[in-house]
Amino acid sequence: MDNAGTTAPVGEVPEDANQHCPGTEAETAGKASACEGCPNQQICATAPKGPDPDLAAIEERMSSVKHKVLVLSGKGGVGKSTFAAQLSFALAGQEKQVGLLDIDICGPSIPKMLGLEGQEIHQSNLGWSPVYVEDNLGVMSIGFMLPDPDEAVIWRGPRKNGLIKQFVKDVDWGDLDYLVVDAPPGTSDEHISIMQYLKATNVDGAIIVTTPQEVSLIDVRKEINFCKKVGIRVLGVVENMSELQQQIEMFYGGAGGAEKMCRQMRVPFLGRVPLDPQLGKAADEGRSCFEDAKCVASSTALKSIIKRVLLATEKNG
Ligand SMILES: Nc1ncnc2c1ncn2[C@@H]1O[C@H](COP(=O)(O)OP(=O)(O)OP(=O)(O)O)[C@@H](O)[C@H]1O
Ligand code: SF4
């Protein structure tokens, strides 16, 4: 799809005034104007309480999105963005209308993984227009706003929160079957923000990506507990890079750790994706692995996982 159909490029994200407050002892503590946009508001004792006036606009915007799925991981580098990108390609390949939202503000890799590096966001009278891979696959990421992809984004929580709010309130997604949200690793400001904004809008749930290593699984347990705490359903866990194609177990402990952990934590196990250099190559080149015969090992595994995701979400209506 031609992305140039709209008007002026969106400029730099405006500076958020509230970068100063480390916690409840700030001199501005509790003043509504100073606290606006701060992701700590839900947990801050001195934050002014009251409904966020933007929530109604977010609900309105999200009312045209049928299913919302978050892709999370405890640790970085486990393949979460790769999974989110391939999930989006797969859903779009099934004629679904798909939006992929990258809220990894400090490390946006989605533009590269979708082959959209160097693209810019445009604005129309309906809001920010996503960048389109295909007519039915639109993408939004801070990566489109950075003049240099190597530039480091060093933002405090309130400013990240402000941008995430804009992503769910101001992006003209249109009617979507699926909005896939790629979050940064861990449970940080971005997670609190997205949960806060999407919770009221019927999120289907979260998919958690991990590797079989125990250090990764420890963080997955935290991630599952975080989801339970904020009331987001865990659709299931994906064990990525689970084995070498030659059946060599790379990680101490080998494959299967995630499935055992899922039984203990009583969450669904969605399946394993093998370590497949062809999948890494497809991700680096911004391509769908489903259209590459060389990716047969990983794409077969991904297809059966995505089938389970579809079953779990479509049961929701
Ligand atoms: N199954 C796999 N086989 C081979 N390479 C993979 C596989 N999954 C992911 N990779 C590669 O591993 C690297 C890390 O993946 P990715 O960026 O998706 O991880 P991430 O969890 O999103 O990381 P972060 O959130 O820290 O940016 C990428 O180069 C990707 O191509
Ligand atoms: S809500 Fe945020 S800005 Fe307001 S007092 Fe608490 S920590 Fe500071």
From TrEMBL:
It is found in: Cytoplasm. Binds 3 [4Fe-4S] clusters per homodimer. Contains two stable clusters in the N-termini and one labile, bridging cluster between subunits of the homodimer. CDD domains: Mrp_NBP35 (cd02037). [4Fe-4S] cluster binds at residues 21, 35, 38, 44. Pfam families: ParA (PF10609). PROSITE patterns: MRP. Keywords: 4Fe-4S, ATP-binding, Cytoplasm, Iron, Iron-sulfur, Metal-binding, Nucleotide-binding. Residues 1-25 are annotated as: Disordered. Its cofactor is [4Fe-4S] cluster. InterPro entries: Mrp-like_CS, Mrp/NBP35_ATP-bd, NUBP1/Nbp35, P-loop_NTPase, YlxH/NBP35. ATP binds at residues 74-81. Component of the cytosolic iron-sulfur (Fe-S) protein assembly (CIA) machinery. Required for maturation of extramitochondrial Fe-S proteins. Functions as Fe-S scaffold, mediating the de novo assembly of an Fe-S cluster and its transfer to target apoproteins. Essential for embryo development. Homodimer and homotetramer. Predominantly homodimeric. Belongs to the Mrp/NBP35 ATP-binding proteins family. NUBP1/NBP35 subfamily. Although plant and algal NBP35 proteins lack the characteristic CXXC motif in the C-terminus, thought to be required for Fe-S cluster binding, they can bind a [4Fe-4S] cluster in the C-terminus. Also, in this linage, no CFD1 partner protein homolog as found in other eukaryotes can be found. This is Cytosolic Fe-S cluster assembly factor NBP35. It comes from Sphagnum jensenii. The gene is NBP35.
